[in-house]
């Protein structure tokens, strides 16, 4: 079975980005690659695992912000009206 090149392997095993925006951008690019149907099967699995890690990272960041907002608003989330 062919193995992933060192470059492909290192990209998928890279540490998580420092910011939510960085993780979201990488996740969006990964989704495009996965949906293209052009990735070999072994890279699909690695890509899926990387995507799951990025998604968990983004969810954690969003939860942390939501928790901070709850503290600022006295433990109540208020509806967002967008204005």
Automatic annotation (TrEMBL):
Keywords: Cytoplasm, Exonuclease, Hydrolase, Nuclease. Pfam families: Exonuc_VII_S. It comes from the Bacteria. InterPro entries: Exonuc_VII_S (IPR003761), Exonuc_VII_ssu_sf (IPR037004). It catalyses: Exonucleolytic cleavage in either 5'- to 3'- or 3'- to 5'-direction to yield nucleoside 5'-phosphates. GO terms for cellular component: cytosol; exodeoxyribonuclease VII complex. The keyword Hydrolase applies. Transmembrane segments: none annotated. It is found in: Cytoplasm. One of its GO terms (biological process) is DNA catabolic process. Its EC number is 3.1.11.6. GO terms for molecular function: exodeoxyribonuclease VII activity. Heterooligomer composed of large and small subunits. Belongs to the XseB family. HAMAP family: Exonuc_7_S (MF_00337). Bidirectionally degrades single-stranded DNA into large acid-insoluble oligonucleotides, which are then degraded further into small acid-soluble oligonucleotides. This is Exodeoxyribonuclease 7 small subunit.
